[in-house]
Structures are given as structure tokens and as C-alpha cells.
Specification:
about 90 residues, two-stranded antiparallel sheet, binds zinc ion
């Protein structure tokens, strides 16, 4: 890793190396959220207002914290039928 960073410093200059590190970090950050979203989108949720059952899109689930979700089996989602944002839970 140290050799890799040194090579970048010589190759692109210090500023470019910092930018590259930030891009790699953001990419990893996005990847973590995407995996979280795909994992959570694998569940069927029930709307508390109209009772409609739906499968959320993975990109809507990206910023739902996985740990909180697992603890309460609930997620704050927008219902595709009545367009209301509410706490949806997984029906038994
Ligand atoms: Zn609804």
C-alpha cells in the first residue's frame, strides 16, 4: 500500500493522489450503502395507511440503516400506491 501511494505521488503529484484516495473512499462508501439497499429490498413491506404490500427498490433502501431495520422490522418508506411516506413493517 505504501509503495502504491509513493508511485502515485511520483506519477500524479500530491494533489492528484489525495483526490484519488477520496474517490476510492467515496466509491467504497457508496458500495457499502448499495449492498445494504439490495439486502433490505429483498423484503416485502406493508403500508400502514392502505395496507398495500410492496417490494421497495434497492436505491430507496440505500440510506435505511440496516441495524435499526433489523431491530424493529420497520422502515420509513414511501408507499407506491397511496404515495404516503410512513413507517412500513414486514407483514407476518
Ligand atoms: Zn399505501
Amino acid at each position: 500500500m505504501k509503495i502504491f501511494i509513493n508511485t502515485m505521488l511520483i506519477g500524479f503529484g500530491e494533489d492528484m493522489a489525495i483526490i484519488l484516495i477520496i474517490i476510492i473512499f467515496l466509491g467504497f462508501f457508496f458500495f457499502t450503502f448499495a449492498i445494504n439497499g439490495i439486502r433490505l429490498a429483498d423484503n416485502i413491506f406493508a403500508c400502514p395507511n392502505c395496507g398495500h404490500h410492496f417490494k421497495p427498490k434497492w436505491y430507496n433502501m440505500m440510506f435505511v440503516p440496516g441495524r435499526i431495520f433489523l431491530l424493529f422490522n420497520k422502515a420509513n418508506l414511501k408507499c407506491p400506491k397511496c404515495k404516503t411516506r410512513d413507517t412500513c413493517s414486514i407483514p407476518n
